[in-house]
Amino acid sequence: MAADPSSSSTGQHADDFCAAPPEDARQTAMSGPLNVRGERRPPPMQRAFSRQVSLGSGVTVLGMDRGGRNGGGRGQRALPRSGRSLGVLNHSGALGAAGGDGAARRGDFSMFRTKSTLSKQNSLLPTRIRESDLELPTHVEDQSVGRPAEDPLNKSVPAGRYFAALRGPELDEVRDYEDILLPKDEVWPFLLRFPIGCFGVCLGLGSQAILWGSLAASPAMRFLHVTPMINVALWLLAVAVLVATSVTYALKCVFYFEAIRREYFHPVRVNFFFAPWIAAMFITIGLPRAYAPERPHPAVWCAFVLPLFALELKIYGQWLSGGKRRLCKVANPSSHLSVVGNFVGAILAARVGWAEAGKFLWAIGVAHYIVVFVTLYQRLPTNEALPKELHPVYSMFIATPSAASLAWAAIYGSFDAVARTFFFMAIFLYLSLVVRINFFRGFRFSLAWWSYTFPMTTASLATVKYAEAEPCFASRALALSLSLMSTTMVSLLLVSTLLHAFIWRSLFPNDLAIAITKDRQNGAVKPSGKGKRTSKRVHDIKRWAKQAPLSLVSSITKSNSADKEEEEKTE
C-alpha cells in the first residue's frame, strides 16, 4: 500500500541522519535521492531547515514522540541555545509529550560536587531513559564502541578554552554562541554563585584599615587630627568580612570542590587564590597600635606566607616551564596579585624581625614583577586576556611598585633612593590612568572591583611615607588627595555592594564562567586525521542549513553552472 507523499514529506526533517524512512515509502519512491544509509527516500517539499537541529550527534532523537515510532507522526524538540543542552537534560525535558508541556527543567548541580564522577552521575543523560529510547545513528554507535564515556569535569579545562568561550576583562561572561553545563535561567545554589573574587572585599577593607592607622600616627599628616577609632572600626569590619568570606568559601571547598578546580584553572581567577593570604597579612599589619604587640610572633608570618609561597611555586613554575599556561598566554592585569603578595610578606617579615626573609621575598617579587610588567606592557599577540578597553582592572599596575617601595622602606628603615624609584613609577602609572578616566565608564558592577581598590590605597600609603621623608606642602597635598580618592572609591563600592545585596538582590549572579564545556561542540573531543574531514562536512551542512531554501538552491545552481563552464573550457 503506497504511502501519502505529503505525509511522508512532512515527516522528513533534518533527523534523517538518525532514522530511516518507512518501508512502504522506500518502495514507492525509488527515484528519490539517497540518504546517509544508502536508501532512497522521496524528495522533500521546499521548506526551511531548522537552525537548532544537531546534525552531528543525533541528540534530537530525544524529542521524538513515542507514538510516532509505530507509524504515526513524529514531533521534534528544538535544542535551546540558552546553555541548557548538556547538563540539564532530565526526565521532564527528555521524556515530555509530543506537543511539549513546557515543564521546567532543572540543572544537575551534582556534577560540581566534591568527588563527583561520571559513574556517580550515570552520565549527563537522564537515568530513567532506557536504551531502547536512544536511537543513535550507525556512525555514532561505531565511534562510541569500545570507548568509555568521558566526564566533562575529570580533566582540567585548557587555558585557551576560557579565552574562546568567555569574554570581558575578567573572563566572566559567556559568549553568545557557547553552551554551558548548567541552566542560565535558573538560580544556582548559593555556594556555586560565591566566587573567589569575594576576597577582594577583604583586600579593600584591610588596606583601608592600614591607611587610616598611618594617617592617625604619621607626623607629616598630624594636621588632619585623625582619630585612631576609625582604624579600629575599619579593622573590626575587615576581620568580620574576612572570617565570613573564609568560612563560606571553605564550605564551597567541602561541598563543591569541582567548582574550585574550575576557578583554579581560570586564567584570571587563579590569581585571586593569593587574596586570602594577602588580606590576612593586611589585617595583621593594620592591627590598631593600642592593641598591637611591639613585635608579632614569627608563627603568624609562617602561617600566612608559607601557603602563599607554595602557591607561587606552582604558578611561577607554569610560567617558567611554558606550555599552555605560559605567562605570555595567561598574563592579565590581575597577575599582579600573584606578585604583590611577596612585598606584603616582606613588610610583615620586617615587622616580626626577620629582615633576611623579607629581603628574600622582595627579590622574588621584583624579579617576577619585571617579567609581568614587560609582558603586559608589550601586549603580545598571544596575550588574549588583556582587554582592549580600559577597566578598573588596570589599577593593578600601580599596586606592585607601591608595595615594593613600602617593603623596601620597612626592611631597611628609610625611604631611600630605591624606595623612591618604585614610588615614582607608581605615581606615573597612577597619573596615566587618571587622565583616562572616561574609559572606566559603562561597566557593570562586580565584586571583583574590590580587588582594584587596594592598589589605590597602597599608593596612598606610599605617598604618606614619602611625605614623612620629604615634608613639604606638595607631598602632603598629594598624600591627602590620594587618600581621599581611595577612601571615596571604597565608600562608593561599599554602598553599591549593600544595594546589590539587600535592595536589588543581585550581588551573587550565576557564575557562568565555571560551567563552560571543555570544547565548543558540547564536550566532544576535537577530531584529528580523517575525523577532521568528517567534521568539516558536518560544518558545511550546518552552514548551508542556516541559509534560506531559495538562496540555498541558487547557490547550488551557481556552483553547478560554474562547474559546467570549467568542463567546457577544458574540452
Automatic annotation (TrEMBL):
One GO term under biological process is: stomatal closure
Composition-biased stretches (Polar residues): 1-12
Q: Where does the UniProt annotation locate this protein? A: Cell membrane; Endomembrane system
Q: Which UniProt keywords apply?
A: Cell membrane, Ion transport, Membrane, Transmembrane, Transmembrane helix, Transport
Q: How does it sit in the membrane?
A: Multi-pass membrane protein
Which residues lie within the region annotated Disordered?
1-47
Per the record, the domain of life is: Eukaryota
Q: Name one GO cellular component term.
A: endomembrane system
Q: What residue ranges are annotated as transmembrane?
A: 190-212, 232-251, 272-292, 298-316, 337-354, 360-380, 392-411, 417-435, 447-467, 479-503
Major location (coarse):
membrane
> Which InterPro entries does the entry link to?
SLAC/SLAH (IPR030183), SLAC1/Mae1/Ssu1/TehA (IPR004695), Voltage-dep_anion_channel_sf (IPR038665)
The UniProt GO MF terms for this protein read:
voltage-gated monoatomic anion channel activity
Q: Which family does it belong to?
A: Belongs to the SLAC1 S-type anion channel family.
Tell me what this protein is called: Guard cell S-type anion channel SLAC1
Give the organism, scientific name. Answer: Panicum miliaceum (Proso millet)
